[in-house]
Amino acid sequence: MELVLIGFMGSGKTTVSQLLAQKLQKQVVDLDQEIIRQEGKTINEIFALDGEEHFREVEHQLLVATAAQTKTDILATGGGTPMRADNAQFLKQQAAPVILLTASPQVTWSRLHGDEQRPLARQLNVTELAALKAKRAGRYTDCADFEVITDNLTPTEVVAKIETFLATWSN
Ligand code: S3P
């Protein structure tokens, strides 16, 4: 594994990981997509039918499994992945740099508003979303080797910042 992307929902992990993979000619694995594939259900369905605890267990198992796969050059995690202590520990132990994408609550809300695919965000107003983000912020920062604040950046500009960071990264 060469790089891990973490960050709150709507921070741009999926978009940026795909663009980065294209630019660097690398393979990207999206943890949410792996969960959907393995379970044969949408994330909403998993939360509704099996519960969040089951989702988190599958997420943990697939985090460990995908990180070990040779096809995983770039790993885009789910927004909640680093919240489990064992996942955070696992991410920090990787030789690959962990890149944190952040956005302000307002920008995050505008990106997520109307999206029905995220069970933990779809009921939240901007204040509640900001509270959840604030609750998680310390854990994200703790796991990250580099942070990109994406509010005023296009995905291409975010990728450029990551590339500049990678050029200086040695582990
Ligand atoms: C979650 C984030 C989602 C997905 C699930 C739970 C979270 O991933 O894993 O809905 O707890 O923040 P994205 O960050 O890709 O939306």
Structure keywords:
alpha/beta, binds shikimate-3-phosphate, 5-stranded parallel β-sheet, 8 helices, 171 residues, globular
Per-chain topology:
Elements lengths: L2 E4 L6 H12 L3 E3 H9 L3 H8 L1 H17 L5 E3 L8 H9 L4 E5 L2 H8 L13 H18 L2 E4 L5 H14 L3
Parallel strand pairs: 1-3, 1-4, 2-3, 4-5
This protein binds shikimate-3-phosphate.
The site of shikimate-3-phosphate has 11 residues, from helix 1.
Write structural notes for this entry.
By secondary structure, this protein is α/β, with parallel strands linked by helices. It is 56% helix and 11% strand. It has helices spanning 13-24, 31-39, 43-50, 52-68, 85-93, 105-112, 126-143, 155-168; strands at residues 3-6, 28-30, 74-76, 98-102, 146-149. Helix 1 (13-24) crosses helix 8 (155-168), helix 3 (43-50) crosses helix 4 and helix 6 (105-112) crosses helix 7. The longest helix is centred in the C-terminal third of the chain and has 18 residues, at 126-143. The two termini are 13 Å apart. The model has no long low-confidence stretch (mean pLDDT 96). The structure holds shikimate-3-phosphate. Shikimate-3-phosphate binds next to helix 1.
